[in-house]
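We include this case.
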Amino acid sequence: MKALFPKNKFKNSLMNKKCILFDADGVVINSELFTVQYQKQFGISNDEMLPFFKGIFQDCLVGKADLKKVVQPYLKKWEWEGDVDGFLLFWFKAEHNIDKRVIELISDLRKNAVLCYLATNQEKYRTEYMRKEMGFDKVFDGIFSSAEIGSKRPDREFYEFIFREVAKKGISKEQIFYIDDTASHVESAEEQGVDAHLYSDFEEFNGFVRPLIKKGFH
C-alpha cells in the first residue's frame, strides 16, 4: 500500500491518468464525526450509538434499508426530541464542512479534461444532501454512492460498477487514480488494479496532481 506519496514517482505514476476518484469524508469533507459531535452535545455515550452504526445502518449504506425508518426507534434512547427529518438534517449539517481547497483543485482538473468523481459509502439521504445542499452534483462529473450501487467498499462489486461506468467515457481502470483517507479502502482499490493512495495532507496531494494541470491555473 502506498501510504505516502513517493515524490520521485509523482509524474511517472500520474501522467497517464484521466480520471480521479475522490473519497468524501476525510478528503473532500473535513469535519468531526457526527456521532462525536452528537455525544458531546447530548451527553450520549458511544456505546449507545455504536450498535446502530455497526448494525442496521450498514444495510442503509447498500440500499437494503431506509435510514428514516430504521433510525426512528433509536431517537428516544438518544434523547432526540424532534422528528426523524430534523434528526437527519442535524446530522448532515454537522458534517457539512467542505474543504474549499479540494473543490478548487477539482475545478482546475476538470478544466484540464480530467474526469473527477466522488466514490463514497453513503446511504441515500446523505447522498442526496451531498448532491443538492453541498453542490456536489456540479462539483463532480458524477457521484458513485454505495446506496445506489448496492455494494460498498471494500467489495469488488463496488469497483466493478465504477469501471463499467467510466469505460463508457473511454477510461480504463489503469487510467484511474483513487484517493482515500482510509487504509483499508486504499488496499481494496489496489487489489482491484487501481492506482490508489492514502490521503493525509492537502498540500502533499495538491503537489502530486498539479502536473495534470496546465500552466495558467493556480
User: Anything to note?
Assistant: Confidence is low (pLDDT under 50) at residues 1-12. The radius of gyration is 18 Å. The chain has two domains: 11-30+98-212, 34-94. The CA atoms of residues 10 and 139 lie 25 Å apart.
